[in-house]
Design goal:
The structure holds two protein chains of two kinds.
Chain A (H helix, E strand, L loop, with lengths): L3 E4 L2 E4 L5 E7 L6 E7 L5 E8 L5 E2 L8 E7 L2 E6 L8 E8 L6 E2 L3 E5 L1
Parallel strand pairs in A: 2-11
Antiparallel strand pairs in A: 1-3, 3-8, 4-5, 4-9, 5-6, 7-8, 9-10, 9-11
Chain B lengths: L3 E4 L2 E5 L4 E7 L7 E6 L6 E6 L5 E4 L2 E6 L4 E6 L8 E8 L5 E3 L3 E6 L1
Parallel strand pairs in B: 2-11
Antiparallel strand pairs in B: 1-3, 3-8, 4-5, 4-9, 6-7, 7-8, 9-10, 9-11
The chains are: A mainly beta, B mainly beta.
Chain lengths: 114, 111
Amino acid sequence: GAVVSQHPSRVICKSGTSVKIECRSLDFQATTMFWYRQFPKQSLMLMATSNEGSKATYEQGVEKDKFLINHASLTLSTLTVTSAHPEDSSFYICSARDQQGPQFFGPGTRLTVL
Amino acid sequence: QQQVKQSPQSLIVQKGGISIINCAYENTAFDYFPWYQQFPGKGPALLIAIRPDVSEKKEGRFTISFNKSAKQFSLHIMDSQPGDSATYFCAARASNYQLIWGAGTKLIIKP
């Protein structure tokens, strides 16, 4: 299957700081990338969908000014958690798909806000 | 109508046994039904998927059975191994390519 990477895998930050998470499709061009959040023992919650070169579409209840998403190229999308607070601590996962295929997921990023 | 209901929530199977996880959906516009396997602290990995015009798909020890009229599909893991212990998610793809997820099943294979 296709490979999607995420960086960093873990990040610990102080409350009030911003954190950037990168998602890359390594061997295919991702026309669409998705950002999810997963709480312990729960299913994935879609935060936003981004198409290359377009503004992201956010799901209801997700603050677009807090979770900034950029999809500047066909292989890279970034999620920036601005002014992070402890309640933003979670497991963030991206996925990517090309025009035809299924979603392939990155390994996830564990964010801990102190 | 956008929900996917998954059961059971957790499942314990003896090594060598058959693990069966079930999902049901309502929206007949869903066009693709993948199963993902997730290990703790990792992202989901695509395991196997099926389209609604096929009733069964088999890949190694993993089989999806799909019942279009009942709007149900299931994952069967034959000869279950301890390495299969993970959380399994079914999903259904909507017309906007978003995945609608089941709640997940934690599978434990006992040696």
